[in-house]
Amino acid sequence: MIYAGNFKTNHTRSSTIDYIKELNFGLKDKKEEDKVYIFPPLTAIDFYRGDFTLGVQNAYPIESGAVTGEVGAAQLEEFKINTILIGHSERRELLNETQEFVSKKFNFFKKRGFEIIYCIGEPLEIREKGQDGVIEYLKKQFMGIDIDYSNFMIAYEPIWAIGTGRSATVEEIIATHNKLKELSNRPILYGGSVKETNIAEISSIDSVDGVLVGGASLNADNFLKLILH
Ligand code: 13P
C-alpha cells in the first residue's frame, strides 16, 4: 500500500521537522512493501532523511524565470525533489487551474522524469447523476495526460468527500477504480476523508493501491495509525 500525506496549507518548517522525527520513529514498524509519501508546504521543504519520499504539492511548469510567487524546476532541483502532486481539486477550483494548464504541468514534469501523483475527482452534482456520468467526467480530466507515462499514479479524490468526513462508499470506490483500471495500469490511490475508522475497509479493496490523506495525515501519530493499521 501507498500512504501519501498532503499537508495542504498546514504545518510550518518547525512543526514539519518535529513531525518527521515522530514519523521516522513510527516507520520502523512499517511493512517493507508499504511506501510513504509526505507533501508539506513549500516553505518546509528541506533535506530530510527517513523511510519516506518527500514531494511538493505544486510547482509552476518553468525551469526558472518571471512568475511571481511560484517555484519552478530549478528550485525543486536544489532539494532533489522529483515527486509532485498535479491536478488537485483545490487548485482546479480555488486557483482556477484549467485542464489545459494541468496537462501542461503534467507534461513539463513528465519530461523531467518526475514521479507524478495525478489527482482527479468529480463534484457532488456529477456523483448524484450516477456512476456513468462520473466516469465521463473523470475521463475529461485525462485530456492531454499521457496515461502510459510509467512514473505516475492516479489519485481518485471525489470533491464531495474531501475534508467532509464523508468518504466514498466501498461500492463507489470499487466501481470507479475498476473503470479507471481499464484506462490505465498505473497504481490508483483513493483520497477523501480517509481516517483511522475507515482505513482497514478502504485498503482492503483490491483496486485501491494506496491512499492520499489530508486531515488525518496532519498529526504524525494519526498518520502512523493509518500506515501501521
Ligand atoms: P481529506 O483527507 O482531509 O479529506 O483530504 C483529502 C485530500 O484532498 C488529499 O489530497
Write the topology of this structure:
Elements: E1 2-6, H1 13-27, E2 35-39, E3 53-54, H2 73-78, E4 83-86, H3 89-94, H4 99-111, E5 115-120, H5 124-127, H6 131-140, E6 152-156, H7 170-183, E7 188-191, H8 199-203, E8 210-213, H9 220-227
Parallel strand pairs: 1-2, 1-8, 2-3, 4-5, 5-6, 6-7, 7-8
Bound molecules: 1,3-dihydroxyacetonephosphate (13P).
1,3-dihydroxyacetonephosphate (13P) is lined by residues 6, 88, 157, 162-163, 191-194, 212-216.
Residue share in β-strands? 15-25%
Total tally of structural domains: 1
- CATH C-level label: Alpha Beta
Residues in helices, as a percent range? 25-40%
**Global Rg:** 17 Å
CATH structural fold name: TIM Barrel
First-residue to last-residue Cα separation:
11 Å
Give me the CATH superfamily.
Aldolase class I
Number of strands: 8
Write the element-wise H/E pattern from the N-terminal end onward.
Answer: EHEEHEHHEHHEHEHEH
Average per-residue pLDDT, rounded, comes to: 98
What is the number of helices? 9
Structure description:
- The protein is globular and about 45 Å long.
- Helix 1 (13-27) runs parallel beside helix 9.
- It has one domain: Aldolase class I (TIM Barrel), CATH 3.20.20.
- The chain has an eight-stranded parallel beta sheet with strand order 3-2-1-8-7-6-5-4, covered by helices on one side.
- With 229 residues, the chain is an alpha/beta fold.
- The longest helix has 15 residues, at 13-27.
- It has nine helices and eight strands.
- 1,3-dihydroxyacetonephosphate binds at residues 6, 88, 157, 162-163, 191-194, 212-216.
- 1,3-dihydroxyacetonephosphate binds next to strand 8.
